[in-house]
Amino acid sequence: MIGLAHAGLGALTGLAIGLTGVGGGALMAPALIFWFGVEPQSAIATDLWFAVLTKLVAVKAHHGEGQVDWQVVRRLWWGSVPVACLVVLLVGHGVTLGSMRNTIGVTSG
């Protein structure tokens, strides 16, 4: 059930994102987990949907002002989209997020 506290969390997160452009994931998922008792996987998925919706609004506003460098966006997509798809495939085939985290920790030093 969505209550006033959930709406308040959304408003505070939206304010932080609007003022700084960052912080939604750093605020929303931990708050859902620790304050509302949401399971981590569900909190992350919920936070991702929240991020998608707020970012779509931001893209429209910034694009309308001519502030988006679409060439840079395309270059970022070339790296991020394939890796995001790979992670989804790995998780779908039973690779745990913990094992990926351990692998990243080992390979990054």
What does this structure look like?
The chain has 109 residues and is an all-alpha fold. It has helices at 4-20, 24-34, 40-64, 70-92, 97-107. The relative contact order is 0.06.
Helix/strand layout:
Blueprint: H1 4-20, H2 24-34, H3 40-64, H4 70-92, H5 97-107
Q: What is the β-strand count?
A: 0
Question: Could you give the order of the helices and strands?
Answer: HHHHH
- As residue ranges, the low-confidence spans are none
**What about the largest sheet?**
none
Q: What's the average pLDDT?
A: 83
Briefly say what this structure is.
The chain is mainly alpha-helical. 80% of the residues lie in helices and 0% in strands.
Notable traits:
mainly alpha, 0% strand, flat
